[in-house]
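Quick one: REDY-like protein HapK from Sphingorhabdus arenilitoris, C-alpha cells please.
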Amino acid sequence: MAYLMLRYNLKDGVTPEQFEQWVRETDQPAMRGLKRVESFETFRVTGLLMGEGAPAQSYFEIFEISDLAGFTGEDMPGETVQAIMGAFMQMADNPEFNIAERL
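--- reply ---
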C-alpha cells in the first residue's frame, strides 16, 4: 500500500467555500471512484498545536493507493484524473505531492 499526501494553499481569489464545495461534489466522488484508490480524504488545517503564527499550508489530502504503479501509469494519464487535476491546479497554489509508506 502506498500513500499520496498533498499539501497546499489556495490561490488568490479562490475562496475556501468555493474550493470545499468542489472537493465534496466533484473531487472526492471522482477520485474515490478509481479502483486503485482505497481511500481519499481532504483536510482543512485549522491551527497549530504548538508555536505561534499561521500554519504553512491550509489544506492537505491523503490518498491510500493499492497499486501505485497502476495509479501513476494508468489512472493519472486517464481522463478522470486529468480533468480533476486541471481543475485542482487552477485552485491550489504550488501543491506539494509526496509519496509515503507506512512504517
